[in-house]
Amino acid sequence: MNKYGILGSGAWGSAISTLIEDGEIIIWTRNIRVMNSINNLQKNPYLKKIKLNNNVKASNSLKDLDKCNYLFLALPVQHTKNILKSLKKNAYNKNFILCSKGIDIKNNKVLSEIVKEIFPRSNIAILSGPSFADEVAQKKPTAVTVSCKNKKFFDEVKKIIKKKYFRIYYSNDIIGSQLGGAIKNVYAIGAGIIEGLNLGKNAKSAYISRSFAEILRLGKKMKAKEKTFFGLAGLGDLILTCNSVKSRNYFFGLSVATYKEKNISKLIMQKKTLTEGYYTTKALYKLSKKYNTEMPIAKSIYKILYEKNNIKNEIKIILNRSLKEEFY
Q1: For 145-166, what is each residue's pLDDT tens digit?
Q2: How far is it, in rounded angstroms, from Cα 90 to Cα 74?
Q3: Do 193 and 312 belong together in one domain?
């Protein structure tokens, strides 16, 4: 019988556990309250309405993951590397399914690069696409992309996740899948700002379209496949997160736009846990410079969040840009 480890006890980690029927599942967490709730009540406080399967247990010890055949990573990206280094003491060759979306701001690396650095002989798959945790746990129809270089490993993942309501499509573009999943969080913040300023549906539609054009430009420079961004891991995820308050990044943008004080530093400090998009904004700004890619929307979001520039001034800068061809 296979054993599965899920690193990360948020709503997404627990939602992933509902997709696996066969075998023993261990959710690793540092949160004692969450661990006790899962072990005693089969419920996660972050996913209150869902009762977890009886084969799900929680632990705060990485040693309990030693015998797991497959590890699902659902951790905040900025903390993943240190946790994986600790895991290395107890694990060797593992099969990883990466479910987090972000870019490490310390080195501008996507998650697969970090895993390969620590576990060079591991199999890696990336699960990405439009998938809110609560809807997955409620068994609502969902479709995602699972990307990996090794098609045989995809076939293994397909056997683990056999739910008809959760469809997985194969891709071998692991860079494109991760870029699409990570970068869309930045633009979701901007979409929340547009909503908070009540700029209208026309503006929102134009914003999403032009944001997508920026993603395509950077993806091309980074050797990702263009078609990946037109799929679930790109456009699909972008549309979802730019249009719903369920998205923490969108909600964060909404909060930024409606914050009454001129300087948003206090708002950022008030957030106990900042969204992935906040960090990815910094990484994206660095990548745009590294690859000499014109990304005016991403640049404005960076300046609002990190340089505390006035939101309305940044909008004026974008609207006053010289007109050019739609795709360049």
Answers
A1: 999 999 999 999 999 998 999 9
A2: 19
A3: yes
pTM: 0.95
Cβ atoms 130, 240 nearer than 8 A: yes
- Which residue type sits at 106? K
Q: 1-33, pLDDT tens digit by residue?
A: 789 999 999 999 999 999 998 899 999 999 999
The answer to whether the beta carbons of residues 261 and 310 sit under 8 Å apart is: no
Q: Is 184 known to be catalytic?
A: yes
**pLDDT for the residue numbered 326:** 84
246 CB-near residues (< 8 Å, 6+ apart): 132, 134
Instruction: For residue 57, give the 3-state DSSP assignment.
Output: strand
Strands (E), the chain: 3-7, 24-28, 43-44, 47-51, 56-59, 70-73, 95-98, 103-104, 109-110, 123-128, 142-147, 166-171
Catalytic residue of the set 81, 94, 109, 184 = 184
208 is a domain residue: yes
In a domain, 287, yes or no: yes
Contact call for residues 14 and 50 (beta carbons, < 8 A): yes
